[in-house]
Structure formats: C-alpha cells, structure tokens
C-alpha cells in the first residue's frame, strides 16, 4: 500500500514541481533593464527641503557675545583677531549664523519665541548639522538628532501652513525652504511593480511608434487617394449627364476635392 501511495504522489507532484520551476525561471524577451534607485536619506538637503547650505561666514567678524564690546572697538588689530571667528570653535560660527536667520524673520527686537524665530533657529541648526554629516557620515547620534530636528520643523511648518498661509509663504521664501509634506499614500519601490510600469511604458511606446508610422503612410497615400476620388466623381457626373438621369454629384463637391489636393501639394515639402 505504501509503495502504491508513493507512486501516486510522485505522479501527482512531479508535473506540479516542473510547472512551478518553469514559471519561476521564465524570463521576458523584452530588453527592459531596471536599476534600483538610490535611496536618499531623510537628512539630505534634497529631501529635507533646504535649497541653500550653510554659507561660509567671514572669519574676521567678532564672536556674537563680543559684537557690542566697547573695549574691543578701541583695541588693536591683534586683540580683535584673537576674539574673531578665526580663533573660535565651530559652534561660535553656528551661533552667529543662527542669529542672522532669527534677525531676518523675528517680529520685533526682543522676539525669541515666535514660530518664525523657532523655525529660523531650527533651520540654521539643520544646515550646520548637514554640513557636519557630510564630513562625518558615520556619526549615528548626529544623524538621529538631525532627523528629529527636521521632523520638528516640518510639523511646525504644517501648522503654520494651515493657520496662516501668507506668513508660511513669506517664511519659506525668506529661509529658502521647500515644504515637502508626508505623502498620504506611501508606496515602496519594488522590482516587480517597477517592471510592470516599464513594460506598460514599453508597450505604449511601441503603439505610438506604429501609429506614427501608419499615419505617415496614410499621409503619403493621400494625394493619390484624392486624385482617384476626383477622377471618380467627374466620371460619375459625366455619365449621369450623358444618360439624362438625376445628377447626384455636385460640382461644388468636385471643386472641394480639387482644393484639398491643391493645398496638399502646397504644404507637401519637395
């Protein structure tokens, strides 16, 4: 009994396995090549929406906390150079850049907590971090902090866009930002779906090329067709007049075909 059952199972399973193997190994003859697109990280300026990077500030400027110092105003050049950005750590340059962005968007002189000032401060910090990530791409903590700051700015821009659209437009123009909201329907990039789209595009291109070829063929045959039509109409009208029967072909119809043929010869390149 066991031998019989094994034979029955083998006769049933072998064709099924062969069919599955053939379907899995099937390859299309179409010359369509799909390359997986490069993934853009969320902290990249192309995805975060920052159109300009952090600019290179003049290193001869004084540090932020010493800009209004009267002692440095009367000091010699060597002392001023020691208190400039040239001999200061990098975060001093970032502080000055943040202050410039906040001053360009704040509502009044003492404004530090409005939504415009917050977004300007975050924008300066984001661009400074993006500059650092390019130099140190393996700093995971910096990348995580940068992503959180980008998401926080995007959330505040979303609220501002909803409640005050004019201010939202003015702010993104002032800071050179492109607002990129989250898509409502997220679709992951897969090989199968991409090949389907490429195949549809390939078929549509073939269809359009064949239609163009057929159109050119018909346009090339159009003068011959109009000439035959005009001769046939003239023959029918002449026969009807000679046989004294009702004339069904008007002279205006023949003249119309002649005009079409004349216009066609004019517009046809030699």
UniProtKB/TrEMBL annotation:
It comes from Photinus pyralis. Pfam families: Ribosomal_S15 (PF00312). This is Small ribosomal subunit protein uS15m. Belongs to the universal ribosomal protein uS15 family. Residues 240-267 form a coiled coil. One of its GO terms (cellular component) is mitochondrial small ribosomal subunit. The lineage of its organism: Eukaryota, Metazoa, Ecdysozoa, Arthropoda, Hexapoda. It is found in: Mitochondrion. Keywords: Coiled coil, Mitochondrion, Ribonucleoprotein, Ribosomal protein, Transit peptide.
